[in-house]
Amino acid sequence: xxxxxxxxxxxxxxxxxxxxxxxxxxxxxxxxxxxxxxxxxxxxxxxxxxxxxxxxxxxxxxxxxxxxxxxxxxxxxxxxxxxxxxxxxxxxxxxxxxxxxxxxxxxxxxxxxxxxxxxxxxxxxxxxxxxxxxxxxxxxxxxxxxxxxxxxxxxxxxxxxxxxxxxxxxxxxxx
Length: 175
What we know:
By secondary structure, the protein is of the alpha+beta class. It is built from six helices and seven strands; from the N terminus they run E-E-H-H-H-E-E-E-H-H-H-E-E. The strands form two sheets. The protein has a four-stranded antiparallel beta sheet.
Protein backbone atom coordinates (compact mmCIF):
# COMPACT_ATOMS: atom_id res chain seq x y z
CA UNK A 1 0.00 0.00 0.00
CA UNK A 2 1.24 3.50 -0.83
CA UNK A 3 0.77 6.20 1.83
CA UNK A 4 1.47 9.94 1.59
CA UNK A 5 2.66 11.10 5.01
CA UNK A 6 4.27 14.19 6.46
CA UNK A 7 6.38 12.13 8.85
CA UNK A 8 7.14 8.43 8.87
CA UNK A 9 5.38 6.34 11.49
CA UNK A 10 7.55 5.86 14.55
CA UNK A 11 8.77 2.28 14.46
CA UNK A 12 11.16 1.05 17.13
CA UNK A 13 14.43 -0.24 15.66
CA UNK A 14 16.74 -2.42 17.73
CA UNK A 15 20.03 -0.54 17.41
CA UNK A 16 21.86 -3.51 18.93
CA UNK A 17 21.07 -5.46 15.75
CA UNK A 18 20.70 -2.68 13.16
CA UNK A 19 23.44 -0.16 12.33
CA UNK A 20 22.76 3.19 10.63
CA UNK A 21 23.08 3.00 6.83
CA UNK A 22 25.23 6.14 6.95
CA UNK A 23 27.54 5.61 9.92
CA UNK A 24 29.20 8.99 10.35
CA UNK A 25 27.12 11.55 12.23
CA UNK A 26 28.63 14.42 10.25
CA UNK A 27 27.95 12.74 6.88
CA UNK A 28 24.42 11.75 7.94
CA UNK A 29 23.71 15.33 9.06
CA UNK A 30 25.13 16.85 5.86
CA UNK A 31 23.98 14.16 3.41
CA UNK A 32 21.56 16.45 1.58
CA UNK A 33 24.37 18.93 0.91
CA UNK A 34 26.18 16.17 -0.98
CA UNK A 35 23.02 15.36 -2.92
CA UNK A 36 22.39 19.03 -3.75
CA UNK A 37 26.04 19.46 -4.79
CA UNK A 38 25.80 16.51 -7.17
CA UNK A 39 22.54 17.92 -8.51
CA UNK A 40 24.20 21.31 -9.05
CA UNK A 41 27.20 19.71 -10.79
CA UNK A 42 24.85 17.87 -13.15
CA UNK A 43 22.90 21.07 -13.93
CA UNK A 44 25.89 23.33 -14.67
CA UNK A 45 27.04 21.75 -17.97
CA UNK A 46 23.60 21.98 -19.55
CA UNK A 47 23.02 25.54 -18.40
CA UNK A 48 26.46 26.82 -19.37
CA UNK A 49 27.34 24.81 -22.47
CA UNK A 50 25.77 24.51 -25.89
CA UNK A 51 24.23 21.06 -26.11
CA UNK A 52 21.72 19.39 -28.42
CA UNK A 53 19.19 19.80 -25.60
CA UNK A 54 19.24 23.57 -26.15
CA UNK A 55 17.21 22.95 -29.33
CA UNK A 56 14.23 21.78 -27.25
CA UNK A 57 11.77 24.58 -26.58
CA UNK A 58 11.46 25.63 -22.95
CA UNK A 59 7.74 24.74 -22.50
CA UNK A 60 8.43 21.24 -23.82
CA UNK A 61 11.36 20.88 -21.41
CA UNK A 62 9.16 21.85 -18.49
CA UNK A 63 6.38 19.51 -19.65
CA UNK A 64 8.82 16.58 -19.84
CA UNK A 65 9.91 16.89 -16.20
CA UNK A 66 6.67 15.55 -14.66
CA UNK A 67 6.46 12.35 -16.76
CA UNK A 68 10.14 11.61 -16.12
CA UNK A 69 9.61 12.17 -12.39
CA UNK A 70 6.51 9.93 -12.30
CA UNK A 71 8.21 7.11 -14.22
CA UNK A 72 11.26 7.46 -11.96
CA UNK A 73 9.14 7.04 -8.83
CA UNK A 74 7.08 4.21 -10.35
CA UNK A 75 10.26 2.26 -11.04
CA UNK A 76 11.18 2.59 -7.36
CA UNK A 77 7.69 1.44 -6.38
CA UNK A 78 7.83 -1.59 -8.71
CA UNK A 79 10.75 -3.00 -6.74
CA UNK A 80 9.17 -2.65 -3.29
CA UNK A 81 5.38 -2.61 -3.58
CA UNK A 82 4.77 -6.32 -2.93
CA UNK A 83 6.99 -6.70 0.10
CA UNK A 84 5.81 -3.83 2.28
CA UNK A 85 4.11 -0.46 2.58
CA UNK A 86 5.56 2.52 0.76
CA UNK A 87 5.54 5.95 2.37
CA UNK A 88 5.93 9.14 0.32
CA UNK A 89 7.47 12.12 2.10
CA UNK A 90 9.41 15.17 0.99
CA UNK A 91 12.40 17.14 2.19
CA UNK A 92 13.38 20.36 0.44
CA UNK A 93 13.44 19.65 -3.29
CA UNK A 94 13.39 15.90 -2.78
CA UNK A 95 10.51 13.49 -2.61
CA UNK A 96 11.43 10.38 -0.67
CA UNK A 97 10.08 6.89 -0.93
CA UNK A 98 10.45 4.84 2.21
CA UNK A 99 9.51 1.20 2.48
CA UNK A 100 8.84 -0.62 5.71
CA UNK A 101 10.06 -3.86 4.13
CA UNK A 102 13.38 -5.51 4.87
CA UNK A 103 15.39 -5.73 1.64
CA UNK A 104 18.47 -7.72 0.78
CA UNK A 105 21.52 -5.87 -0.48
CA UNK A 106 20.74 -6.82 -4.08
CA UNK A 107 17.10 -5.82 -3.91
CA UNK A 108 17.90 -2.55 -2.12
CA UNK A 109 20.56 -1.74 -4.73
CA UNK A 110 18.03 -2.40 -7.51
CA UNK A 111 15.47 -0.29 -5.60
CA UNK A 112 17.92 2.62 -5.59
CA UNK A 113 19.48 2.11 -9.03
CA UNK A 114 16.69 0.91 -11.36
CA UNK A 115 15.31 4.39 -12.22
CA UNK A 116 18.81 5.68 -12.96
CA UNK A 117 19.65 2.69 -15.15
CA UNK A 118 16.34 2.74 -17.06
CA UNK A 119 15.87 6.49 -17.50
CA UNK A 120 19.50 7.62 -17.78
CA UNK A 121 21.60 4.59 -18.69
CA UNK A 122 19.43 3.13 -21.45
CA UNK A 123 18.75 6.51 -23.14
CA UNK A 124 22.48 7.32 -23.14
CA UNK A 125 23.31 3.96 -24.70
CA UNK A 126 20.47 4.42 -27.21
CA UNK A 127 21.84 7.80 -28.18
CA UNK A 128 25.08 6.21 -29.39
CA UNK A 129 23.12 4.22 -31.97
CA UNK A 130 20.47 6.80 -32.87
CA UNK A 131 21.10 10.34 -34.03
CA UNK A 132 17.70 11.33 -35.42
CA UNK A 133 15.26 14.08 -34.54
CA UNK A 134 14.44 12.54 -31.15
CA UNK A 135 18.07 12.49 -30.04
CA UNK A 136 17.91 15.77 -28.04
CA UNK A 137 14.79 14.53 -26.25
CA UNK A 138 16.43 11.22 -25.37
CA UNK A 139 19.44 13.10 -24.02
CA UNK A 140 17.18 15.46 -22.06
CA UNK A 141 15.32 12.55 -20.42
CA UNK A 142 18.66 10.99 -19.44
CA UNK A 143 19.95 14.28 -18.07
CA UNK A 144 16.85 15.35 -16.13
CA UNK A 145 16.60 11.89 -14.56
CA UNK A 146 20.28 12.00 -13.56
CA UNK A 147 19.58 15.29 -11.78
CA UNK A 148 16.53 13.76 -10.05
CA UNK A 149 18.53 10.65 -9.13
CA UNK A 150 21.46 12.45 -7.52
CA UNK A 151 20.57 11.12 -4.07
CA UNK A 152 19.94 7.64 -5.52
CA UNK A 153 23.40 7.69 -7.12
CA UNK A 154 25.06 8.43 -3.78
CA UNK A 155 22.99 5.75 -2.02
CA UNK A 156 23.79 3.18 -4.73
CA UNK A 157 27.49 3.73 -4.19
CA UNK A 158 27.12 3.48 -0.41
CA UNK A 159 25.15 0.22 -0.74
CA UNK A 160 28.06 -1.37 -2.60
CA UNK A 161 30.29 -0.84 0.45
CA UNK A 162 27.98 -2.77 2.77
CA UNK A 163 28.52 -6.50 3.49
CA UNK A 164 27.17 -9.01 0.97
CA UNK A 165 24.59 -10.50 3.35
CA UNK A 166 23.29 -7.13 4.62
CA UNK A 167 19.56 -6.62 5.15
CA UNK A 168 18.32 -3.03 4.85
CA UNK A 169 15.40 -1.56 6.79
CA UNK A 170 14.34 2.11 7.13
CA UNK A 171 17.78 3.70 7.01
CA UNK A 172 19.50 0.89 8.90
CA UNK A 173 21.12 -2.39 7.98
CA UNK A 174 22.09 -5.61 9.70
CA UNK A 175 24.43 -8.42 8.71
